[in-house]
Please model this.
Amino acid sequence: MEVYLKPIISACYVFPILAVIFTIPYILYEYHKYGSILILRTGIVYTFIFYMLTSYFMTVLPLPPRSSVTPDTASVLLVPFDAIRRIITTANVTLSQPSTYVNLFKCFDFWQVAFNILLLFPFGVYLRYYFKRPWWQVLIFSFGYSLFFELTQISGLYGIYRYPYRYFEVDDLICNTLGGVLGYVCTPLIVFMLPKRDRLDEAAYKRGQIVSEFRRGVAWIIDMVIIMIPVCGVVSFEIKGGKEAAEKFLKNLKLAAIETHVADAKTCCLNPATSTHRQMNDEQLAAAGVPAGLIRISCGLEDKNDLIADIAQALDAI
Model:
């Protein structure tokens, strides 16, 4: 039993935070689709991701030293129900004598079969309750998931080990698949207190129709980010004729605003020589690399064709 408990205990330390990281994309998807976030739905998805990580962890741990894995460490066992034969042989159980049944709990092979069944039991529950899969799909997915486990082991953890470090057993495929199907069958007994998936969807859609203050705040922040990203780009160009030409250009602008700053929701335009650097003379401006006819402009949310026309007519007026 210790072989199974160690990965579970390790997962309890490692995977809660990792599961949160994997759940965040789903939360964003849920909010985008439904316009709301249900704590219950998020919790269900979180536990599913945590379960998937833990079940995978149990298939690869414990990892032996690489030097200890040899061609004889593990092989392929394709005899079905060989685990049952080993249980009958080693547990000393007599079907006609119920008092011998307690020996099962002292048999390693019995616990191996039991844990292999329990390993995919939650998988079947999730597939039926949340993902609304029929029994035959649960059967196929459970077999496929179990086959993924066995191939992971027989491949030496995808080639990290030169040889397989665990047996590929057909009994594992049978027990894991049986566990998934049993999870499907027992789902109504386990989730009877939880709302059905359809009701979760209805509640999410209904809540998404209510524009709360929180949603208004989130929308405002997103809008500000979207607005500021394009307007933070500033274009600079020099007009021949120095300050006089620059001032004439600014005076002829009709749409763009003359400001002492740039990067705003509206189009801003300025001549540093007559605004932000007006305290400098021509020699100081030249030394600072600020031409007297320099124009700085940042585009806002106005129509691009209107902005182009406004700048063109201001240039023509010089």
